[in-house]
Structures are given as C-alpha cells and as structure tokens.
Amino acid sequence: MKKILFTSFAFCLISLTFAQKTTKAIKVTYQRSSNGKIIPNQDPLFLFASKDLSLITTDKIIQQKANFPFEQTFVAFDSKTISQLAHLKAGKLILNHDAEALGKQKFEFTDETKKILNFTCKKAITTVNSNKIEIWYTNELGLKGGPGVLGQDLGLVLETIRNGNSSLTATKIENLKTIPTILTLPKVPEVDQLTYKDLLWKSRFVNIPVFNKEQIHFVADAKSNDSIFRYASGTVIVRKVKFPEIKKGSSIYVDVTQQSNGDAYDRTGSVFMIPMDKKSSFLDGLKNGVNTLPVYENGNGKKYQGVVATEDYTPLLELMRFFTPFGVKHFNYLQLKNKVWQDSVFYRQDISLLQPKLSNQEVYIGMFIGNYDAGGHKASLNISIHEGEDNNPKGDFILPLFNTLNVMEMAGQDYATMFDNEKGLEMTFEVPEGYKNFKLSYTTTGHGGWENGDEFLQKKNTILIDGKEVFAFTPWRTDCGSYRLSNPASGNFGSGLSSSDLSRSNWCPGTTTNPNLIDLGNLSPGKHTIRVSIPLGKPEGTSSSAWNVSGFLVGER
C-alpha cells in the first residue's frame, strides 16, 4: 500500500516538473458574480500571464466584437510598470505607463487560506476608495497576474471580492506551451496619465460644441458671421447644429459655462431650439422683427408675440433655463473676508426627453441672456450625447405648446403679464393617434424684482386640461444662499443678508430651473385645451411682475 502511494506521489511530482518546464504562459478565465449569483450574459474576463508580462483582456476584445472605447491592461513584472492601452476607435490607440502604482499597493496579510481550482490560496486585504477588497492569490504556479491591477505582484490572483458581495473568480486555467502574440505590449503613441484619462472619457460620448466663450451683450450694431447669428441687439445668439442619429434611451445633456463680462446683475438665460415645422417660426421674428410673430391675446388689452403654438407657428422649445449670478469673474475684485469667488458658473441639464426632436436633425440652437450692458456676458454651450441600449431611433411624440419667456425683450417682445386675469394663458392643441401616457414638461419662474414683486412672493401655479385641474404647486427656492460664492457683486443689506441669499420664485442667481414633469395620463386623440393660471401681482409705479412659463407635451408610443 505504501509503495503504491509513493509511486503516485512520484508520478505527480514528475508531471508537475514537466508542466513547469513546458508551460511558457497561462490563460486564466474569470467569472463575475454578485451576492453569490453569477451575472448573466457577461463578457468573460481573461488573464494571459508569462514570467515577464501579464495582460488583462476580455473575450469580446479578442474576438474583435467589443464596442469602442475599450481598455486592456499590461503589467511588466521586472520594472513593476502598469501600462493601460486604450482603443478609442478603430485605428486610434493610446498608451499610458505607470511605474509607481504597483509598488505603492499596500496590503494586510492574513493566515486564512482556501482552495480555488485545487490550488491553495492566501488572503490579502486592501482598501480602495472606502471599498474593502479581498484578494486570494496562489504561489504554486510560479507565475504572477490577476483580473485587476491589485495584487498582481503577490502571485497569481484567483479571486477578488469587493465589499463582500461582488466577486471575480477564476473558473479555468490553461497552460500555454508558447507565449501568445497577444502577450506583447504594442508600440502606440504614449500620453501622460491625465491626458489618457481625458481622451478615454471623451471617447465615450459625442460632444457637440455650439458656442465657445461668445459674448452676449447689448450693442446697437451686433454683427452676425457665417456660423453665429446675433439678434435683439446682441442678446440672442443662434447657430445651426447637425445632430447624429440618437438611439432611444440615450442620455442627452446641455452644458453652459457663463461669466460676467461687465454686467453686474442676475439675468434670465435660456437655451432653446427653434422649431421650423410650420409656416412661420421664431426665427422669422428674430430676422424681421417681433411684430411678424403671431399674437396671443387674453382680453387684457395687451398683445404677446410668439408665445403659443398655432396652426401655422410653433414656439421656442426650451432646453434649459438658467440665471446668471451677480457679476461672477468680472467683479471678483470686490473682496470680502473668507470669500473666494468662483471663476465662472457651470450649468448642466438632462434633456434626454427631447431625443426625437434632435435625432438626425439639423436645427437652430440659440442662447439668450437678457441684459442692457455693453460688456454683458461670455458663455459657452455644449451638447453631449451618451449612447443608450435601445437600437430604435424613433422616440416619443413631442409637441411644444407655449413659451412666455420674452427672448426678444431687447427687441420689443412684451413681458409675460398675461396672468393678470382669470384666463391667464390658454390655448388649444391636438393629440395624434397611437400615443399614450402623456406628460407635460413645465418650467416656471416668477419675476418682479422689488419687495412686492412676484420674484419674492409665493404664487400658486395651476394647470388645467379641458377645464379640469391636473396639477398645482407653488414654485419656490429656499437654497439661494448656497450659491453666494458665485455672486461677488450681490448687494448686501443691513440685516447681514445678501441679495443672492434671498428665496425666490423657483430660481436663484447662479442656478438652473428644473422643469416639472406632470403626468397627464391617456389623452384621447383630437383637440384639447390647456390653461395656466397664476395670480399675478399688481404693478407698482413703473414696476410690474411677470411669469416665464414654457411647456411641451410628451406622449409614449
């Protein structure tokens, strides 16, 4: 019996020695699991490792089926260098070397062991960004590597566990008699780490630059050029923009960066699209004068130009409403103790709902900042598209209904004072067949910047569909003091407050105003009416209140 056991042991020893002599490299397959359950439809993770080099990659990358961008990681054990290889797009590769990261890894070693694929593994623990990482590694194969950069120099990592519930576990080890060609660090352009991260991040989405530090100011002779059109004495800028096909389910964001270029006051700003689907458009008003726009009347004797949809006209489709702070950057010399003023204000808003209006379209995109200052403001605008999973490019039904913001204020468009009678803003719209689960995207801000003006008074907004109330709320912001560091020119009061601290009707100096998404249910095909009712404050002397409301209808297929 003892002889048989000795013979078996000797055979295993000979086999192991033979394997070590013939194995030039190994291929390890890893499987992801969460809370003890295998994650379905995963792209298997592979580790290729030789004595000198390891490579972390995936099955889809090897099969050339991976979506761009994607990364591969090499570790050179002699120099302890981690090299990140990014495939930004077909034929566009960049490389970054880090000769310090591997040596900086710190671990707590334990006496725990366990078997993985019949190899005895030791346990090491580390922490990354408040995440506890357990690393199980073996030294029995004489090679190093792992499914991530952590623990690559400890031995062969066969399992990593994050926070006790997310695991990467080796399921198969293959001995390779030759070193595969894939286990070779390619010669591609090298960049520093920050550049690498920046280029990789930017390759993950489509960015459409619309305006770059354009001046929006009040001058009599505002001049357009071949690409940027200036209207309303320079307070409105417009550009034609071509959008690619955008998959349904994609995320779309609009970004604005703004600085004062001389104007000290908080101003209303808006980013908008000019619909061109009807006989006349807002662009006609910009080109030919506000009086060429269709007029809305509610019986108070005033005429409001271009604010509601008609059979022949579609109003502006608002993408973002923002408010400039008091003089950010230009007035940063106005020092206060313990106040470090911001250099600019960055506004960012999700406009994914508008995918069907932008996908594969060439449209006019505009920006407005109301001001009467020759220096005015400087602003940049970008729109980014982050691809979704739905391959269907057709989106929901979008119908712009109204927009009372007087974008052409500096060219004579009247303020939105139509809410001074019971009718308020009322219009008719038509719902097509084949849609359901309708919603109203509704943006509202109150204005009238004196003590009794609606900027500083809480006023209930009520929305009625076909005479029935469907939504009512009182728009109010109480967090304006959070943005004090963007308001160097804000007036200070004897009470110790700044003007920018004061609560307002759904806006603050230096912020965006979020739209309300109001559930309307299933509207029957055909014509309907919508009414917006707000108890507008009465004028005092030459001062009057106004409410800038915009809304568009969304229907699901």
Automatic annotation (TrEMBL):
Pfam families hit by this protein: N-glycanase_C (PF09113), N-glycanase_N (PF09112), PNGase_F-II_N (PF22252)
Keywords: Disulfide bond, Signal
The keyword Disulfide bond belongs to this UniProt entry's keyword annotation: yes
Signal peptide span: 1-19
Molecular functions per Gene Ontology: oxidoreductase activity, acting on paired donors, with incorporation or reduction of molecular oxygen, reduced ascorbate as one donor, and incorporation of one atom of oxygen
Domain Peptide-N-glycosidase F N-terminal: residue ranges: 207-385
InterPro entries, sorted: Cu2_ascorb_mOase-like_C (IPR014784), PHM/PNGase_F_dom_sf (IPR008977), PngaseF_C (IPR015197), PngaseF_N (IPR015196), PngaseF_N_sf (IPR043022)
Domain of life: Bacteria
Name under which the protein is recorded: GLPGLI family protein
Organism: Flavobacterium saccharophilum
